[in-house]
Amino acid sequence: MTTAKLLGRRRFLPLFVTQLFNAFNDNLYKTAMVLFVVYQVYNSEEAEGLFSAVASGLFILPFFILSALAGQLADMRDKARIIRIVKLCEIGLMLIGASGLYLAWRGYVMPVSIPLGFMTIDTSFPIILMLFALFLTGVQSTFLGPIKYAILPQHLRKEEVLAGTGLVEAGTYVAILAGTILAGWIPVEYAAAGIIGVSILGYISARQVPAAPPLGATEKLDWRILRASARLIRKTMDDRQVYYAILAISFFWTIGAVLFIQFPPLAKNVIMASKEVASVFLVVFSVGVAIGSVAVNKLLKGTVSARFAPASVLVMALFVVAFYVVCKLWQADQPTQLLDVAAFISWPMATVLLLCLLGISIAGGMFVVPLYAFLTTRVSTDQAARTIAANNIVNSGAMVGGSLLAMGLTAAGVPIAEQVLLSAAMCLVSAWLGMRLHRAE
Question: Pick from 9, 122, 147, 421: CA 20 to 30 A from residue 71's CA?
Answer without folding.
Answer: 9
